[in-house]
Design a protein that fits this description.
By secondary structure, this protein is of the alpha/beta class. The chain contains eleven helices and nine strands.
Length: 303
């Protein structure tokens, strides 16, 4: 995976012969069936990266393969799938990897008191536990080679909570805490961790969230019969079913690609990359407002 070049360098006044490695930058991009993951995979390939995209469904794997990728099947919610995907990746890359962009996730809408334990566990299995498992498999490789980039697609909802999004909020807050801690633990290495925090982005996110909402809450007669939030749920369905942009600040996935590219090429990548106006605004307000004031704004924004 390297082209070895010998060159003379002067270091602290002494001549030393160093071996410089020109890396073929191999990147794993997860959740590439559509939206952000798909855009990032294609965009990085155009920039010359060797990209290995993943997807859960066979149809998406076939499409990525037809488009010239060496795609890998990966379902974050299935621990065995994570193991198999990692082993497959290592076989393809000869046990080397420059970067990973963790991205595959979904949102589970609904009031917190209407979320079953099973629905919350499934949200965390896909949005947190699978990311953590894969990352722990990748880290020994990066430590051994002495470098690496770990990019995590978080959300503005990992900074500020909005009503009816409790499960997704919790999963993104968990990612923020988990990878913030990992960044501290990697401070003496050449492995950099970056959290990318988009607001509204054009994708199939709402369609996937609508299905999760219907499966776990809206079509559950027992929940709907006793929920104190029933009067809001028709609005939730209408919002999720709406075609096109529901927020005037919605950006295309290329906005995330731009931050990913910076995190990959920067000598010292940023800790956080905000994407979209709502992320900048809410992130700023969280720093300057009291919790009560921020609650009032979040309640208004969440409706």
């Amino acid at each position: 995976m390297y082209d070895r070049v010998a060159c003379k360098v002067r270091y602290r006044g002494l001549n030393s012969l160093h071996i410089v490695y020109q890396m073929k930058k191999t990147v794993l991009v997860t959740g590439c069936s559509s939206g952000i993951g798909r855009c990032v995979a294609y965009g990085l390939r155009e920039k010359g990266y060797i990209v290995y995209p993943t997807a859960r469904n066979e149809a998406d794997i076939e499409q990525l393969t037809a488009d010239g990728f060496d795609a890998i099947k990966l379902d974050y919610s299935d621990r065995e799938s994570v193991k198999v995907a990692f082993n497959t990746l290592m076989e393809k890359t000869d046990n080397e990897l420059y970067a990973v962009f963790h991205n595959g996730a979904y949102g589970q809408p609904g009031g917190v008191e209407d979320l079953s334990r099973e629905a919350l566990e499934q949200q965390f299995a896909t949005n947190v536990f699978g990311w953590h498992q894969l990352n722990n498999l990748i880290l020994p490789i990066m430590r051994s080679q002495g470098y690496g980039r770990i990019l995590v697609n978080s959300s503005v909802l990992g900074l500020v909570a909005l009503s009816m999004r409790g499960a997704y909020n919790a999963s993104k807050f968990a990612l923020e805490g988990l990878f913030d801690t990992l960044r501290l633990e990697l401070h003496e290495t050449n492995i950099f961790v970056s959290l990318i925090e988009p607001g509204p982005i054009t994708s199939k996110f709402r369609a996937n969230a609508k299905k999760a909402f219907e499966d776990n809450i809206y079509h559950n007669k027992a929940i709907m019969a006793q929920s104190p939030h029933t009067k809001y749920y028709d609005k939730v369905i209408d919002r999720l079913a709406h075609e096109g942009r529901v927020d005037p600040f919605t950006l295309p996935p290329e906005a995330v690609l731009k931050r990913v590219e910076h995190a990959l090429v920067s000598k010292r990548s940023k800790v956080r990359y905000a994407v979209t106006v709502p992320t900048y605004i809410l992130g700023f307000l969280k720093r300057i407002l009291s919790s009560r004031c921020l609650d009032w704004i979040s309640i208004k924004a969440g409706k």
